[in-house]
Amino acid sequence: MKNIHVRKTNNETLQMTNGHSFGVRNVSFIATSLLLTVCLAFTSQSVSAKKRLPRLLVFSKTAGFRHDCIPVAKLAMIKLGQENGFAVDTTEDAAAFSTRNLKRYAAVLFLNTTGDVLNDEQQTAMQNYIHNGGGYMGIHAATDTEYGWPWYNKLAGAWFTSHPKQQDATLIVVDRNNPSTSHLQEKWQRWDEWYNFKDLNPDVHVLIKIDESSYEGGKNGDNHPMAWYHDFEGGRSFYTELGHTKESYADQAYLQHVLGGLRYAMNIKAKK
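== ThuA domain-containing protein ==
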C-alpha cells in the first residue's frame, strides 16, 4: 500500500491515496449538494401532490339574509377536505367566477349564498363550467339565490319560498344507495330550518324527503324533497336543504351526508 500523505493548506485537508486526492471542502460541498437535491425532490413531490389534489371552491357571498353559521361551516368544509384528500378554497368574491379560474376546481359549493351574487359575465362562466363537466353543490340557502336566473333554478333544482320556525322533524331517506345517505337509517330525526320550495325540477333524483306530519309549516305536501342530485347539461349537481344551524357543522351524520354530496359533485370516489 502506498503511503498516505496528509497536508493542510488554508484549512483544507488533502489526502493522497493511490494518486487520488479528496478535499474536505469538496466533500462537504458534494454532501450539501446531495442534501439539497434530496430536499428539493421531496419538496417538489409534495408540491406536485398538492397540485394534483382535486379542488373545491366554497362560495358564501350573500346579498340577502346572512346565516351566522357560515364561518363554522367554512371551517368544517376545510376540515372535510383535509381528512378526505381534496383541497378547499373559500371566497366571497364573485370575481372567482371566471372561465380561467373555475377550470382549477372539480366543483363549486354554494354555501348558504343568498340573493343576486353573480353578474351576467360570471353567470356565463358558471354555465360554461358546468357544460365542460364541472360540479355544483348547494347547501341550504343556495336555493334562496339568483331568482332572476332561470338556468340556476334548473341547476340547483328548486327555489326557496318560505320556512316555519326552526323545529324538530322526521326526514325519510328514500334512497340509501348513495354515499350521502348510506350511513343513515330510513328515518332521520333532526332539528333544522325546513324550507318550502317552488319550481322544483322534476328531473332530479330525490334522496331525502320530509314528513310534513312531523312538524308545523310544511307546504309541499307528500312530495317535499330535502336532498337530491342530478347530472345536468354535462356536469353534476347536488343539493341538500339541511344546514341552517351552527350545530349542523359539528354533527357527524350531517357532515357525512355533505361529504357524500361533495364527492358526487367533484366526481371523486370514496377510498375503500
